[in-house]
Amino acid sequence: MSEPLLDYDEALAAFDPVLGLEVHVELNTASKMFCGCANFFGSAPNTQTCPVCLGLPGSLPVVNAKAIESAIRIGLALGCDIAEWCRFARKNYFYPDMTKDFQTSQYDEPIAFDGRVELEVDGETYTIEIERAHMEEDAGKLLHLGGSTGRIGDAEYSLLDYNRAGTPLVEIVTRPIRGTGAKAPAVARAYVSWLRDLMLALGVSDVRMEQGSLRCDANVSLMPKGTSELGLRTETKNVNSLRSVERALTYEIRRQAAVLAAGGKVHQETRHWHEEGWTTPGRSKETAEDYRYFPEPDLVPVAPSREWVAELRATLPELPGLRRARLQADWGLGDREFADVVNAGALDLLEATVAAGCPAPAARKWWLTELARRANAAGVELAELAITPAQVAELQALVAGGTVNDLIARQVIDGVLAGEGSPAAVVAARGLAVVSDETALAEAVARAIAADPAAAAKIRDGKVAAIGALIGAVMREMRGQADAGRVRELVLEQLA
Amino acid sequence: MALTAADVGRLAELARVHLTPVELEHLAPQLDVILDAVASVSEVAGADVPPTSHALPLTNVFRPDVVTPSLPVADVLAGAPATEDDRFRVPRILGEES
Amino acid sequence: MNLLRMTAAGLGEAMAAGVVSAREVTQAHLDQIEAVDSRVAAFLCRDGERALATAAAIDERRAAGEHLGPLAGVPLAMKDIFTYRGLPTTAGSRILEGWHPPYDSTTTTRLLDAGLVILGKTNLDEFAMGSSTENSGYQVTHNPWDLTRIPGGSGGGSAAALAAFEAPLAVGTDTGGSIRQPASVTGTVGVKPTYGGTSRYGVVAMASSLDTPGPCARTVLDAALLHEVIGGWDPRDSTSINAPVPPVVAAARRADVAGLRIGVVREFGGEGYAPGVERRFTEALAVLEGLGAEIVEVSCPHFDYALGAYYLIMPSEVSSNLARFDAMRYGLRVGDDGTRSTEEVMSLTRGTGFGAEVKRRIIIGTYALSSGYYDAYYGSAQKVRTLIKRDFDAAFEAVDVLVSPSTPTAAFRIGERADDPLAMYKADLCTIPSNMAGNCAISVPCGLADGLPVGLQVMAPPLADDRLYLVGAALENALAGRWGGLLLDTLAESPGGAWLGVAGEDGR
């Protein structure tokens, strides 16, 4: 299913990627953008609709004040100017998920514009310019049935649930992002991750990519090195996780590079990301859509007073950059170590683990080594592993207290991930506790010494290095459930 | 500014209104007459004149973020041409999702 | 007493005094509809059973000692563009045939709360587009003054119902003259309130920035009483004005124009205006002058561009407002045979369900908004709107109200302009500027020309709706003095109106 790809390094040797990211944030207001229907995810179909969001003849929209407030706060947090006067506009096109066959959005008068975001990726700072943040409403949800893929391409018919129609959205659009070179996919991921953190800090959205409350359309084009002419770009949709942002862009860069290297042209098109690891083109349109934008006549202009904007500015919480600086200092981590945490998507997890009583270095160790290894193997995000920060803290406490050692801890993790319960429960159920019974331990040591007289002799002679074999034998007999340090002491005692 | 039947056909496509060949032929000259009549509008509208989209200068009309009752599902689906599993059923869609 | 000839105010008082019951009043009007609507065809549907039940409930409440409003128990005809649960709302289109809305318009709620009895839904040009009601997808309505002639449009059904004495009150919507022009050609009173003065929630939208629901009646006072019921701020309509309803009833009762400055708009006259219309208009001016008003001529030069700008702005908004009729959620669905795509079904449905005038305006509107043309068409038209507003503002510095004929001609024959859209559009020449600027206007009968009614239009600044009723009532009273009653009384008592069966004190 994958198209020809150029090796990533080869691609980056010949081309400079230029990124564009459009992120939609679903606001967590209680009610919808233009009506009082409840705004939450997961209800029975068409139970959260009314004449307004259904677009019934005669219905009229009324703007949700909280949505405006959230949009302004997002704009301020992005360093944007807030419009003194702006309007909603109709974006006219026909599609069954849009009840009015136009979307009430903003066109040439966004509520926020000209912002910037600074990101650190692998020790380097990148500046992302924000062109605009504007308000719009979401469409309903389509189900495609009758085909084999559940996708629109081979469906026989479709079903519509309009619960989501009219949900408030803020769309954040970047200016073209240049100068990221090979880091482009990582920078894109870092940006989306930063936006997530920002929305959480502002409290305006639960930004769950897997539920669609944060959506990213990733645009990329390739500029041949040495030129300054922008190439044709593709827009990739269905990018539903931070990991996918990075993978999708990496794929597109490689795919476009292969096309260009072979002397072909990149089609300016919308593509669909498949989690298996490739993008496919959407249906190409003969002509670009003409949206016939005009100011929404059913709504009046939004003119936030400067006083109100100042009031909202004062409500801004500690922004992600500041939060990160504080956490890094609190945890005593170096820049490199902290960057690893952020890039692994483990910041919130670490914070929660530390809050549960685990020392920061240990928390970092667990999440970034043992647990990260398992997440990669399973192809999931760290946060999706079936172990909680509290459980990690509990595990660390068991290790620190000597109940289990590092090695056994891995088996404990196995048990927790397998759903056998908390770390303490797994230790008990599987009998993993380190043997602390001195008698049993001494007997095992005696047996190991008796079984390996040569090693014993060497040790008596002062060649302490040979002790490893004896310790190893004891550990094997104890199935690892012994404190290696104590075993060593006992061996030396018995051979003294 | 003569509108041909082809022009009208493109506009009808954009507006999702099926027109028969007879309608297309009939409509183009009618629209031309109307468009000629309205063309004078652009002459009198100088660059320095601001547009008016609302008769009265209202601004900042909002409602509080409060949940109000939704329609019962039966009412929502009552007039639907086709439904399945409490959802609206529509024929296969050609266009890609927005 | 002839219940059908009484005013709404009179009926309200009679019911309050216990002289007649609401049930009797409603039954009398239902009987009249039964008797004459086969010829007039004003109604698309009737709601007899529920109307009688509503009336009976009013009688019970009154009997229990409850004090009810002045219009409680008065029957009303509703333009089929307002949603009202329990009845279909078609907007005169086949694409909405049989659609039962799950909610009431704010206007409907206010009418019901005031105790009015809704008799049924009246005919209109499809989606309020037209000046003759010939564009209705269902039937042609006939002018009771001459059944071979149009009753005006788009609200011809409501106006005809009033003129045929099928109801003493009606509600309509006015986007470019759809209340005032039918009022003019049927000898009734029609008002376009200040834009935003009445709620558009639950009104099937045509041109959002122009649509204005308004009262229709046979007398100025009746219209004022109805205006007070339906007017006022609606939080469900973002464009509605948060201000009290102007004192329209008080103004209608005062009816005194002494010292008032009245401006005659020079641009509304001359070529295209029927001589009979201009004569009646000029005579009416003399009457007003005789009552103490000062008449001056004013010029509103940009009014000449109003028609052109209107026929760009209105179709543009129409093309967007009517997009929702796509066969997906309600209404007509054509061509869904299991092989066609959604796109095809949408297109076939709209091609079949919309009439010719609607399709014309959708295409024009799509064109005017399309990329490359916005600035020249829609953009320019919005600027002309500003120029029209400025003309009005300047005029209202010099005068208190403006006047003109309501429409250039009396009722034309059915079929006469059906093939000439541009000729049809010219019926709205005098009414359109008020919609463009958002101010208020009224049409009151001012005489007959060749036996057909002529209307005089009064225009006032936004939120000065009371001035309309002041002038309208003054003129009505003065002319009633000359005619011995309302213009419609002439029809009721004439041989040509015998079929209406409302002659004399006791009616039929």
Structure description:
The complex is a heterotrimer of chains A (496), B (98) and C (508). Chain A is an alpha+beta fold. Helices cover 39% and strands 19% of the residues of chain A. Chain A is elongated. Helices cover 40% and strands 9% of the residues of chain B. Chain B has helices spanning 5-14, 21-44, 73-77; strands at residues 62-63, 83-84, 87-91. In chain B, helix 1 (5-14) crosses helix 2. In chain C, strands 1-3-2-4-6-5-10-11-9-7-8 form an eleven-stranded mixed β-sheet, sandwiched between helices. In chain C, helix 10 (306-321) packs across helix 13 (375-398). Chain C is globular and about 65 Å long. The interface between A and C is large, with 29 and 44 residues.
Instruction: Specify the helix fraction band of chain C.
Output: 40-55%
Number of helices of chain A: 16
What is the alpha-carbon Rg of chain C in Å? 21 Å
Structural class by sheet pairing and helices of chain C: alpha/beta
Strands of the largest sheet of chain C, in order across it?
1-3-2-4-6-5-10-11-9-7-8
From the N-terminal CA to the C-terminal CA of chain A, the straight-line distance is 68 Å
The amount of beta strand of chain A, in percent, is 15-25%
- Class by helix and strand content of chain A? alpha+beta
Task: Please sum up the structure shown.
The complex is a heterotrimer of chains A (496), B (98) and C (508). Helix content of chain B is 40%, strand content 9%.
Keywords:
heterotrimer, A: about 500 residues, alpha+beta, 9-stranded mixed beta sheet, elongated, B: about 100 residues, mainly alpha, two-stranded antiparallel ribbon, 3 helices
List the helices and strands and how they pair.
The complex is a heterotrimer of chains A (496), B (98) and C (508).
Chain A lengths: L7 H7 E12 L36 E2 H13 L3 E2 L6 E4 L9 E4 L6 E10 L2 E14 L3 E5 L11 E5 L6 E7 L9 H19 L11 E11 L9 E6 L2 H20 L8 E5 L3 E4 L12 E2 L10 H9 L5 H12 L3 H9 L3 H9 L4 H19 L10 H12 L5 H12 L5 H8 L7 H14 L1 H8 L6 H11 L6 H12 L1
Parallel strand pairs in A: 12-13
Antiparallel strand pairs in A: 1-10, 1-11, 3-6, 4-5, 4-15, 6-7, 7-10, 8-9, 11-12, 13-14
Chain B lengths: L4 H10 L6 H24 L17 E2 L9 H5 L5 E2 L2 E5 L7
Antiparallel strand pairs in B: 2-3
Helix pairs in contact in B: 1-2
Chain C lengths: L7 H9 L5 H19 L2 E4 L1 H16 L11 E5 L26 H8 L3 E6 L33 H8 L5 E6 L5 H7 L2 E4 L19 E6 L2 H11 L17 H7 L6 E5 L9 H16 L3 E5 L7 H16 L20 H12 L2 H14 L5 H24 L2 E5 L15 H5 L6 H6 L2 E10 L2 E9 L4 H19 L3 H7 L15
Parallel strand pairs in C: 2-3, 2-4, 7-8, 7-9
Antiparallel strand pairs in C: 1-3, 4-6, 5-6, 5-10, 9-11, 10-11
Helix pairs in contact in C: 2-3, 7-8, 8-16, 10-12, 10-13
